[in-house]
Amino acid sequence: MHSAPADVDLALLGGGGAASLVLAALDRHGVRGLRVAVIDPVHRRGQDRTWAFWDRPDGDLDPLLSASWRQVEVVTPAARRVLDLAPLRYAMLRSAAVYERAATAEHRLGVTRVLAPVQTVHDDGERVLVRTADDGPVVRARWVLDSRPRPPARPGRTTWLQHFRGWWLAAQRPVFDPDRAVLMDFRTPQPARGVSFGYLLPVSDRYALVEYTEFSPTQLTGAGYDAALAGYRDLLGLDPGRLTVREVENGVIPMTDAPFDARPSPRVVRLGTAGGATRPSTGFTFAAMRRQAEQVARALAEGRPPVPRPAYPRRHRWMDAVALRALDRGSVGGAEFFARLFDRNPAERVLRFLDGTTTPAEEMAVMASTRLLPMISATAGDATHRLRDRLRPPRPGPPVPPPVTESVRRPEP
Predict the structure, then answer these.
(1) Span 374-392, pLDDT tens digits
(2) Helix axis angle, 17-28 to 286-301, nearest 10°
(3) Helices (H) and strands (E) in the chain — how many of each?
(4) What residues contact residue 211 under an 8 Å CB cut-off, 6+ apart?
(5) Residue 223: in which H helix or E strand, if any?
(6) Report field, pTM of the whole predicted structure over 0.85
(7) Which of 3-37 are b and which e, b meaning 16 or more Cβ less than 10 Å from the residue's Cβ?
């Protein structure tokens, strides 16, 4: 038998990155007197992921950053490009700092934490009743922000995954350039269907994250990721005998033009990937997730409903669908596609385009730098597929699979 519900103004379902950013933003905006609950079976702490994003320096996250770079490299078999990102910078943020700031905000806000999985969410239009599993606590909220993973509302016309494995490498002597990151290195062997690249994010001259990433329909095996990472390490000229793997990171992120339902009911709002924050053409999520948190906090501080704007303009979602289709059908190569973007546009414009913050005129310039005929063909195919979608009965899309974590290489103690 359930006990009487605990009444709150705001319930956060899921306590990961999206919820942590919301808590920090509420604290930063001076929101007080709001009854807040976080419902998650795990209280997140420590290093469980790394976010990379671009923004302008001197922001609220600066004290939390592990590293940032004003210069990055984009490498293809044909050329090595050194890009000056000014006035932007590329930044690395590790989860422990985000969770620690959220914990401080949680204390100041007087947040109630419920360590249990959510079983049901019922929205009657006035209140949302959240029941937890195994006859656990029941929470009744005026608003719910749900950042738990959710499948898209329907299957995509193109569905890929961004899947990756990274090694945090410690070197016995200085081998990394801490002033320059490798954003994308396409010299890796390319899959039959998809795109692969490596990247290097140095924290110091002796410590760096080296990662292998694929954009493709399916994941590799654990041994496959290890082999690809070892190959990229060797391609960088790093001596494995002088390196120690301190940590291993794995991940999988949806890259699909399928729609995610950001407002499944009147008082339930989805955030993060479930709320459309993942950019379909790149898998980048953090910048949009941060915008969502800021908009939610500002709305609550001003007494408005905590409903953020769409993560990306509709025209950007359309351009992503076309680009994904062209890449998936093989009419455009991944290395060529990204190389042309950076060769024919200022780096700042490309990065803002990938973040969804460019103007229509800038977007025309970016699109003009791609190969025209393949994009026209992909546009026509996308339009035909959209028409077919309207004639089919709706059905949910597939869930995003968990990352592959088994590995023959384990971090050193």
Answers:
(1) 888 989 998 988 888 888 7
(2) 40
(3) 9, 17
(4) 164, 165, 166, 167, 198, 199, 200, 201, 229, 249
(5) helix 222-235
(6) yes
(7) eeebebebbbbbbbbbbbbbbbbbbbbebeebbbb
